[in-house]
Amino acid sequence: xxxxxxxxxxxxxxxxxxxxxxxxxxxxxxxxxxxxxxxxxxxxxxxxxxxxxxxxxxxxxxxxxxxxxxxxxxxxxxxxxxxxxxxxxxxxxxxxxxxxxxxxxxxxxxxxxxxxxxxxxxxxxxxxxxxxxxxxxxxxxxxxxxxxxxxxxxxxxxxxxxxxxxxxxxxxxxxxxxxxxxxxxxxxxxxxxxxxxxxxxxxxxxxxxxxxxxxxxxxxxxxxxxxxxxxxxxxxxxxxxxxxxxxxxxxxxxxxxxxxxxxxxxxxxxxxxxxxxxxxxxxxxxxxxxxxxxxxxxxxxxxxxxxxxxxxxxxxxxxxxxxxxxxxxxxxxxxxxxxxxxxxxxxxx
Length: 349
Hints:
349 residues
């Protein structure tokens, strides 16, 4: 049973690999693009913290993805995720950052359309609302942080050598936080549709570390993402780090920090429970687009500079990737569901 499941899970691992190429650029693209950190060092830090975030913080957003379309067969989950992975892979080849959230939502909708089941519109509108809110929040955070940093450096000027050192350390720490938040927020996109059919048993490692069946699933997804980080992310780093807007090292830190805060807000179950406990408005636990959050932060900095240095053509190409990705994934998912059920005889529902 586990071998059969691992075969079907291969599409999720492929999606993790394809997504890893994008994720690296989102958390360390600005650091590598500004020459503050080497690619190898960034890839190691990114892989470790994405996996930790996936295993220990991914449950909340993953439940939202699972509720969007209750795929209850391994074959159906396999095809939906394969469609998302294929869409990401094709768009990544063009050098454009895309979102695994957009891709998996398209894949799930393709399944819903094929089997004739209604889409959970509440979950869908929560996700769509987060897609709109996340780049706006990231832009606001970036404008606030950039203004505060400029004011601090104006009042307490640092020697250039120390400033360079502090920014380098800040980029590493913030990138680690961003990678953890990204893994927690986006692991549901990678393997969330398999949570209803996962056959693993809970285990203990060395009698100390407990891993539930879902955490084991998330661990496999995190490893697949890490492989994508090391093998296929350099092209995306150029788009994030240089092609949209040339960034100073300080601005690079602001971008990563703003992105990381937004990813954390939409992934933290502890924060969500804290707000519920005191009757405060909650932030939905929803997988959001890491690419949108990063680019929202870049645009926020550009707005502070009255648009100077912002490369509209590159931004427009990125927007095209965002729009086409879910549609492409949905169409491919619908067609692939037909072949899986009618040609290979595997029930998708």
